[in-house]
Amino acid sequence: MGKKKEKEDLAAEMAKSFEQWEYLKEHGGSDPFHADGTNMNLVRNHIMHYKNEMIEQYGTDYEKYPEIFYREIPPEIKSSYMARTGEIKDGAAQALQHYITDTNFLYLFANKDMLSEKEAKQISLYNVLGYVSGLARAIKDGDLITMRRHAGRPEGYLESFAQCAEEMMKIIDEKRKEPGQMHENGQFSLFQFGMKTGPSR
């Protein structure tokens, strides 16, 4: 009973791996750090592992081998391979357009020099602004892995802009209350405090 279960498990796991490889080839994955080709080759290694496990278990008792054992192993793929490259590029371009027209991002960019380095680090300002410059650089360099992190789902990054802008406004509002923060004419620079009275989506 145990051996039968073992055989079924290996065949089922191998079948899942074949399906996963085909899915990655056609649709790609969502790995934020590795290309689809890298993960396809990893899945290919799993298939070979299951095949070797079957050989160790069944040896020359060929009647025990499941049908999937004889299925051809997928070819090794270039590690840089990415599926749906056109969709990724289009989605990244759309995401960048959302970012550079977002009022929270514009507020952060216009007021970034109002914060000290310590204050900027405190609200992760450099990281948040880096999302936009990083995506722009990825589009220029053809970095599909970075582009994929943004394509089709810019909402998380837009939320980061909103949260960071809210924190920046609190800091700037406190600065306005501190003595010595006014200009010679007793007024704050309009540029200093950006193009709006508060962050909005």
Explained architecture:
With 201 residues, the protein is an all-alpha fold. Helices cover 63% and strands 0% of the residues. It contains eight helices and no strands. Helix 4 (103-111) packs across helix 8 and helix 6 (125-141) packs antiparallel against helix 8 (155-177). Residues 182-201 have low confidence and may be disordered.
What portion of residues belong to β-strands?
under 5%
What's the mean pLDDT score?
88
Order of helices and strands: HHHHHHHH
Instruction: Report how far apart the termini are.
Output: 61 Å
* Class from secondary-structure proportions: mainly alpha
How many individual β-strands? 0
Give the topology, please:
Blueprint: H1 2-26, H2 36-58, H3 85-100, H4 103-111, H5 117-122, H6 125-141, H7 144-150, H8 155-177
TL;DR?
The chain is mostly helical and 201 residues long. It contains 8 helices and no strands.
